[in-house]
Design a protein that fits this description.
By secondary structure, the chain is α+β, with helices and mostly antiparallel strands. The protein has one domain. It has 11 helices and 12 strands. The strands form 3 sheets. Strands 2, 3, 4, 5, 7, 8 and 9 form a 7-stranded mixed sheet that branches. It has a 3-stranded antiparallel sheet with strand order 1-12-6, with no helix packed on it. Helix 2 packs across helix 4 and helix 6 packs antiparallel against helix 7. The longest helix has 25 residues. The protein starts with 6 loop residues before the first helix and ends in a 17-residue tail after the last strand.
């Protein structure tokens, strides 16, 4: 059966131009990300904006009181009303220090989450083939309202899944040359089944992306956002994070449980996390206290050029669509 989600496939792909971080390089990247996190937390505390650690960052707080030793990114969750206040306040305070990419305003952006990126650094991912503003980053996932009525909630979820999938397909078609090259360059590290599965998924997404190419990335992203924001009830019984790793139905929670916060130590500072982190982390990772085997540990691919002291503009002759 063809996999519609390609997130897990990318975690096993190692293109030729990817950057494998040594231990000291990973620690430096985590240090940069921690400085971004501190700035975000300072602003949120000043403005009374609610946020929480998300994904592997929440897991790191619970299991390691800091970064998971091999983790290379930071994830935050933020309720929609707080997120909208954050976007306004952050750009005013930190516009000279960071780029803020959002699905609401950033042209050509193909993600449904916000990304805070540090100027003067260059950390390129598979999302950055057409992006020059690709510094070290933190991802912010928006917690959306959804309907109390089971049928309406089901329809909302299906609509969000469909819209997100179509945006992903449109992105695959735009970047088809790089996606195909990534697949070919990773053939030697994938087993036969994984390679065949990836090839089928890539072909399906590129084919669908071609069929819907009558509208651009921005149009499909705006459509998906409308679907995500369909429920305007800020007191809804349920909330969800449709752009999260488990998508709409896998990240559906009772508001009263999920948005109740507790402070957990993370890298020398207390930071907010859902008080119901046991349910949250079990939903995402299963037995989250078990240390995974080395081959099971999640890592992301970064691409050259990579630098924590120079931005992409300083690399003469490099274009944002450079080879992966």
């Amino acid at each position: 059966m063809i996999k519609l989600s390609t997130v897990d496939l990318f975690k096993h792909m190692i293109p030729q131009n990817s950057v494998v971080l040594k231990e000291e390089e990973l620690l430096l990247l985590q240090k940069e990300e921690l400085s971004i996190l501190n700035d975000i937390q300072d602003l949120c505390e000043e403005e009374g904006i609610s946020f929480m650690l998300g994904g592997g960052t929440a897991l790191g707080a619970v299991r390691h009181q800091g970064f998971i030793p091999w983790d290379d990114d930071v994830d935050l969750n933020m309720p929609r009303p707080d997120y909208e206040r954050f976007v306004r306040a952050f750009s005013q305070k930190y516009g000279d220090r960071y780029w803020l990419h959002t699905p609401e305003k950033t042209k050509g952006y193909a993600l449904l989450l916000a990304r805070v990126r540090k100027k003067g650094t260059c950390v390129r991912t598979r999302e950055d083939f057409f992006n020059r503003e690709c510094g070290a980053f933190i991802d912010i996932f928006v917690i959306e309202n959804t309907f109390g009525n089971p049928l309406m909630r089901k329809l909302h979820g299906l609509l969000c899944l469909a819209a997100g999938f179509l945006l992903s397909c449109r992105k695959f078609y735009r970047e088809r040359k790089y996606m195909r090259r990534m697949l070919m360059q990773s053939k030697s590290v994938l087993d036969a089944h994984a390679y065949r599965s990836a090839k089928e998924s890539f072909f399906l997404k590129i084919t669908i992306g071609r069929a819907i190419s009558f509208a651009g990335i921005d149009a499909w992203r705006r459509f998906a956002l409308k679907c995500y924001r369909l429920c305007n009830n800020n007191r809804s019984i349920y909330v969800t994070t449709p752009a999260g790793r488990k998508h709409f139905f896998g990240e559906l929670y009772l508001r009263k449980d999920f948005l109740r916060l507790t402070l957990l130590p993370f890298a020398g500072r207390k930071r907010p996390c859902t008080a119901d982190y046991q349910t949250y982390l079990t939903r995402l990772y299963g037995d989250y206290l078990r240390i995974p085997k080395p081959e099971e540990r999640e890592k992301h691919s970064f691409f050259k050029p990579y630098s924590l002291t120079r931005d992409l503009a300083s690399y003469s002759g490099k274009k944002p669509g450079g080879n992966p």
